[in-house]
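can u pls check wat happens w/ adenosine monophosphate
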Amino acid sequence: MRPINLVLLGPPGSGKGTQAELLRDELRFQHYSTGEVFRDHIKRKTTVGLEVEEYVISGRLVPDEVVLEVVNAFLAEHAGKPVVFDGFPRTIPQAEGLDQVLGGHDQNVDCAVLIDLSDEEVVKRLTSRRQCRKCRKIYNLYFMPPEVAGKCDECGGELYQRDDDKEETIRDRLGVYHSQTEPLVEFYQDKSVLERIPGEIGRDRVFTDLKQLIGTLSPDPDQEQPGI
Ligand code: AMP
């Protein structure tokens, strides 16, 4: 089966990360989250980490050149495998940059899926989001609480609230999303690769719809994908 490059679009908290994890676990996609990459750099205090820390904490967008640099490095190693991009691209120049890099590997974005969600639902979801410090698994105090409060079901790690999941920062991030990332909907619509799934239908139904979509891009979504 040919490798698929899938872009997940949607406001923060629409479930892009969760869906990308499901695609990784069930369909063996490479999950590429620029947010996770940056948080990892910050934790390790690398040059990139020091450069992006203030942006990530305040919920502003990291400059396009820095983002494209880390994406380039990733694709140099992983192009040709099925990839789900989560939280990238977030601006038109990033989307153009992605097309260019993929083009260099004889590939393109096969599908961009918008997981749509209202601002109010985003705020409700994100203020109740928690993440494991150790294995990075994401929980939600409303929809997917851990079995023991404050502890990860998988590894027992401590659950914490990300600094950028505080309400004031969420409102800022939503503003950034509407002004800078939402234009990508039209960008991908113009390329006839845009699909929409309403985020309100919940994690499992969004995933069912996603799998169906992927099935239309490749003959058999359950088939093992080569190159991994
Ligand atoms: P996320 O985990 O995707 O919500 O990303 C967390 C933060 O990382 C964002 O609020 C931005 O500060 C930064 N970030 C992640 N991905 C990008 C991107 N593609 N472009 C610019 N900044 C990004």
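Residues 12, 34-35, 38, 55-56, 59-62, 67, 87-90, 94, 164, 173 surround adenosine monophosphate (CB under 6 Å).
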